[in-house]
Amino acid sequence: MTARIIDGKLVAQALRARVAEHVATLPFRPGLVVVLVGDDPASTVYVKSKDRAAAAAGIAARTIRLPAETTEEALITQIARLNADPAVDGILVQLPLPSHIASQTIVETIDPQKDVDGFHPLNVGRLAMGQPALVPCTPAGVMKLLADAHIELEGTRALVLGRSTIVGRPMASLLLGANVTVTMAHSRTRDLAAECRRADVIVAAAGRPRLVRGDWIAPGATVIDVGINRLNDGSLAGDVAFDEAIGHAGAITPVPGGVGPMTIACLLENTVTAALHRR
Ligand code: NDP
After folding, report:
1. Binding site membership of 257 for ligand 1 (Cβ less than 6 Å)
2. Which of 4, 156, 173, 276 counts the most CB atoms within 10 A of its CB?
3. Ligand 1: does its nearest atom lie under 6 Å from the Cβ of 185?
4. Tell me: the pLDDT tens digits for 47-56?
5. Which domains are assigned to the chain?
6. Distance CA 108, CA 128 (A)
7. What's the pLDDT score for residue 1?
8. Torsion of CA 89, 112, 100, 31, to 10 degrees
């Protein structure tokens, strides 16, 4: 068996085009502000591509760059200003923040209605309760990839590998909402291979290159690889041994070109959702 490749670039392109079409029909321009503290090179690259994608979709995007030595108080004041600004629909504070700033405090400062990352406890709680919420972009993107690939979810078993608040936990909530029987695995899971073998769908988000081996995958299972790991030679690898997995899975996402492009596309969609809801 050779797995069908789920092309995240194509699905993301289509979603971005739909968002742009939607924005063009609105009587206002949704506004997105990204706050970047410090000059972490990876964050700087992400922020630029978010800016570009938002502008291409007709969203009024701007980035506020603050020096690495910005105090927590100063950042809170900045966010309070954005909370109060009626032209701002979405606020995203790029993580990680410098170590002297408590990320959780900052996340909790953002108006939940403008929390396009979906990290505010109100949105986290609403999602966990199965209520409408602003949903974290990466797991939201995974659900769209599964839908686009026509993967039947209802009644199936999924293994979510990783329990972070950014990916694993919201992923499990979304799958549960789609009537999937969800198992969550993490670094203390005893027999990860056995857990994987029971799954119809595996979502790998551990941040460990090639952790999931080909023979851990049930024949025909769907494998979504969220992992982005930079190897010593500079190349990118997912959490799944793609070359092995392709002979076992029914459908699989590559890295790069799988989940990655969906994250920004879902951020744009969240910005429009936040704008419509608030205005
Ligand atoms: P975290 O480091 O916050 O969480 C990793 C999770 O994986 C933890 O729950 C950890 O368990 C678990 N884990 C780590 N090692 C193992 C192991 N050997 N066996 C089983 N479980 C393990 O990472 P994130 O959730 O933020 O990100 C995960 C990956 O997804 C990263 O590669 C990241 O780069 C990528 N990512 C990709 C995005 C995209 O747009 N495609 C967006 C966000 C992230 P424990 O809780 O016990 O420590």
Report:
1. no
2. 173
3. yes
4. 999 999 999 9
5. 28-111 (3.40.50.10860), 136-259 (3.40.50.720)
6. 17
7. 78
8. 0
